[in-house]
Hints:
The structure holds 3 protein chains of 3 kinds. By secondary structure, chain B is mostly helical. Chain B has 4 helices and no strands. Chain C has one domain: Cytochrome c oxidase, subunit III, four-helix bundle (Four Helix Bundle (Hemerythrin (Met), subunit A)), CATH 1.20.120.80. Helix content of chain C is 73%, strand content 0%. Chains in contact: A-B, A-C, B-C.
Amino acid sequence: MFMNLQGPWDPLFGRLPMLLDLQYNNPWIMFAFALVVLGGGTVVAALTYYKLWGWLWRDWLTTVDHKKIGIMYIIIGLVMLFRGFFEAAMIRTHQAMAVGPDSPGILGAAHGYLTPFHISEIFTVHGTLMILLAVTPILVGFMNLIVPLQIGARDMAYPFLNAVGLWLTAMAAGLCMVSLFVGSFSHAGWVGLTPLTELDHSPGVGVDYWIWILQISSIASTVGAVNLIATMLKMRAPGMSLMRMPIFSWTAMGTNIIALTSFPLLTVAIALLTLDRYVGTHFFTADGGGNFMMYTNLFWLWGHPEVYFVVLPAFGFISEIIPTFSEKPLFNHTSMIFATMMIAGVSWLVWLHHFFIMGSGPQVNTFFSIATMLVGIPTGVKVFNWAFTMFRGRVRLETPMLWALGSVLLLIGGGMTGMMLAIPAINYVSHNSVFVVAHFHNMFLIIAFAIFGAVTYWWPKAFGFYLDEKLGKIFFWLFWGGSVFVFVPMYALGFLGMTRRLDYIAHPSWWPLLMLEVVGIALYAASVAAFVLQVYVSIRDREKNRVRTSDAWETSRSLEWATHCPPPFYNFGATPIVHSNDEWAWRREHRLTTLKPENYSDTHMPKNTAVPIVLGFFVGLFSIAAVWRVWWVMGLCVIGMIATLIFRAFQKDVDYVIPADEMEAMEREKLDQIDHRAQDSAQQTGEMGEPEIDGHAHG
Amino acid sequence: MAHHQSSPIDHPEIQSASTLQYVSAFVLGLALMIVSCIITLGGGLSQSSTLTWIGILALIAVVGQLYLLFKLDLSKTMIWHTVSAVLTIPLVFISIVVTMWMFQYLEMRVMVGGS
Amino acid sequence: MSTDLSRVADPGSIKLYTTEPDHHDPITLRSIGFWLYMMSDIMIFAGLFAAHGVYGDAYGTSKITAAQVIDPISALFPTLFLFSSVLFFGLAGVALKNNDRKEVLRWMTAAFVVGLVFVLQEIWEFVKLAQEGAVPQASAFLSDFWTIVWAHGLHVIVGLIWMAVVLIQVLRDGFTEAVVGRFLNLRIFWFFQAVVWVFVYTFVYLMGVS
C-alpha cells in the first residue's frame, strides 16, 4: 500500500515473509538470544515454581501505587542500561581490533568482528536505548518514587495515567528487545539522519523499529510530565509553599515542564518521518521539495531540551545527597530554584548548536552560540551552591556522597568542553569527531553517577535495608576508573581527528589510545559485576542491614524520611504539615520526630486496575504490526485502544476508602516494629541511645 | 470520590460559563476571519503587509478566544491555567519564528529546499 | 528557613499532622491536568507550523501551487461550522451551570452534529483534491497541507468520539462528579479546536493565496 517495498509483502502477514530470507548465523545475536532466553526463562520458571504469578499480577502489574510504578520504571531502566553497556563494550573492542590494513577480521568482517552494517546498528541502538530507555525511565522512576513523598502527598494526581506511562515505556523497551532478534534495527544513528532514514535508503524494518520506539516513549514521557506537574501544583502538603518544595522536586518540575513542551516536537518530527516512510509524503526526502534539514531542526528542537530533561533530575539528586552528608542545609535554596528554572528556560534557545555546520550563517550561529554559553551561568550557580554547602559542613564520605562528588567533578570537565563546543569556530572543526562523543558521554556520566548515588541513597527508603557499603565503594571506584580510562583517551582521539561511528580505524598510531579505552571498558565490566554482587549481598543480608528508623541516614532533610522504610502504600498515616524548607531536619532539631499523629482520618486510595496493561498490550501489538506493515492488525489495535479507554470512562468503582481505625491499626503495627528495633539495638550496644522516633511522646 | 459536601455543578469552572461571552467569541472569531479573507482576496495590499495584517487579526482572534472561552485570569481556580499558557505561548513563537529565521538564512546561503 | 527555633516557644503545641481528611478538589485537579496536556498538544501544532513556514512554497517539480488547491472563501464554511459547534458546546456549558439536563443534551447534540458536518465537509473537500491529483505524495507543500489540516481534523474526530461518550454518560448518570469533570475537559479540548483553526485558516489558507 502507498509505497514500493523491497522484498515480499502480503495482506495477511505484511512484511513478515521477509524473515524467511534472513539467516541467523551471527554468533553475537545467538549469544544475546541465549542470554535473554536464559534470563527470561529463569524469571518465568521462578515465578511458576514459587506460585507467584497471582502476586505479580495483583501487586505489581495492575498496581497504581506510585512507588511500585517508580520501582518498575527503574528496573526497566537498569536492565536496558545493562544491555547498553554490552553494546558499548562491543563498539570499543571492535574498534580496538579493527586498526590498520593488516588487522584481522573474523565472523564475516573485513576488520574486527563486526560487519559495517552491524556496528551501525549497534551504535544506533546504544544511543537510542541509553537515552530513551535507560536514563529516562530511571529518572522518571525516581521522580515517581520520591516526589510525592517529598511533597507529602498520598499519591500522584492521576495514578491511572501513571500506570499508562509505565506500560507504554515497557512496550518501547520490549520493542527494542524484539528488534534484536526479529528483523534488524536502524543503522542511521540514534538521531536518525535524513534522508538516510527514508525508505529509499533504508528499505528494511530497522528504521521502523526505531521510529515506533521513539514515538511510544515520547508519548509515555508526555503523559508522565502532565502527571508530575499537576501533582506538584495541586497535591502538596499543607504549609509547603512552592518555594519550600525540596530541590529534587523543583528539578522534577523543571524537567517535566521541558518534557511537556518538547516531547510533542519529537512526536511531530517522527510522525512526519513516519508519513514519509509509510505514505510517501515529501517532508524530508531529497526530491519533491522536501527539506532534510527540517528533520534535524525538529529533532533537536526536542533533542536539546531533552538533554536538560535528563540532567536536571541528576542535579536534584546531587542537591539532596550533598546536604544530607554535609549535615548542613543546602546553600541558598532560592537561588538553586531559580538556577533550575533558568536552565529549563534557556534549554529552549540552544538547539541549533547541534548543527552549527548546517550553514545558516554567522548571525544565526552567533545567537545560538551566546545562548548556549548562557547555560553556564545557572550551572555555575549550582556548582558553587554545592561547594558552599560542603564548606564547613561535617562531610561524611559514604557511598552516595562519593557518587555525588564524582558527579560534580565530571560536571566541571563536561561543562568546560561544552563551552569549547559552543564556539562555532571550534565546532566547525570538531563536529562529528569523538571529541563531541567524549563530551556528551561526560555529561551523561554526570547523570549515571548521580543515578547510582540516588540508588544507594534512596534504596533504604524504598526497601527498608541498606546497600552494602564496602561493595558500593568498590563499585564506585571501578566505575570512576572506567570513566577516566574510556573518556580521557577519547577526548585526545577527538583532538587527533578521529571521527565518530567508525567501523575501521585507518590510523595505526591511534591504537594505544584505543587500547586504553578497552582497559576502561574492562574496569566498567568489573564495576557492573561489583554492582550486581552488591545488590545480591545486600538482599541476602537484609535482616542484618535493616533500617532502624524512618530516617535511614540520620541526617536527612526532606519529608520522604518522615514515613516508614519502606513507605506503606498510603505513604503517610496522616498528612504532615510543613513548617520549613527542610521539614524533617527542622523536626529533628526540635525533637518533633514522632510519626504518630493526634488522630487518623478516612483516606481515599485508588483501586488497582488492569486497564493500563491492556492498553499497553494494544500499543505494543500496534507498533509491531506497524513495523511489519500488517495493516489489519494495526486497525484492530486502534479499535482495541479506543474501546479500552471508553471502557475505563464507564468504570465507576475506581477508588476506595481506608477507614480511620483500620489506618490506625496498620500504623500501630509499624510503629511497634520501630520501637522493637530501637530496643533491640539499644540492648545490643548496651546503652540506651537516643531513639530517633519517640513514638509516644506526642500521642 | 470523597467529597460530597457540594454539588459538582457549583464548581467555579462550571459556574463561569456565560452565554454572552461565548456568543461574543463566536462573533469575534467569525468576523475577524471574514475580514482577513477580504483583506487577502481584495489584493489592495502587498504580500508582506497582507501577512502582517492577517497575522495581527489572527492574534486578536486567539487572544479574544483565550479570554472569552477559557476565562484565563488570576483567580485561585484559574491561576495555574493562566501561568502554564503564558509559559507555553513564547515557546510556540520561539519554535516557529526562530525556525523560519534559520531556514531563511539557510536557503540564502546553501539553497537547500525551496522550489 | 522561615520558622526558626527562637520563635517556637512550646514545641509540644506545634501541629505536625493534619487531623482532617485530605481535600483535593477533584474537578480542578482534572482540569489542570488536561489543560497541561493541551499545552503539550499546542506544541504539536507549533512543530507543524514551524515546518509549514518552510514548506509553504516547496513545490519541488510539482506543477500544483497553493493558489490552485486553496479556496479561502469556501474554507469559510468549515470555519462557520466549527465556530458554531464550539458556540453550541459553550451553550451546553451554560445549561450545565443551570443544572438543566435536557438543555445540556440538546446543545451537545447540536454541537456534535455540526462538528460531524465539519468533518464530512473536510473529507469531501480533500477527496475532490485527491481526484484532481493534489495528493500528499505530489510535493512537500501538499504533504504539509494535508498533514496540518488533518492533524486538526483528527483532533476534531477524537473530540466527536469523546462527545458521544459524554453524551451517553450525561444521559445515563446525570451530573456526577466524574461526568462533570469529563465534560469540563471536553469543553477545554473542543474550544481549543477553534483556537487552532484560527491559525490554520490564517496561516495555511489565507497565507497560501496571498
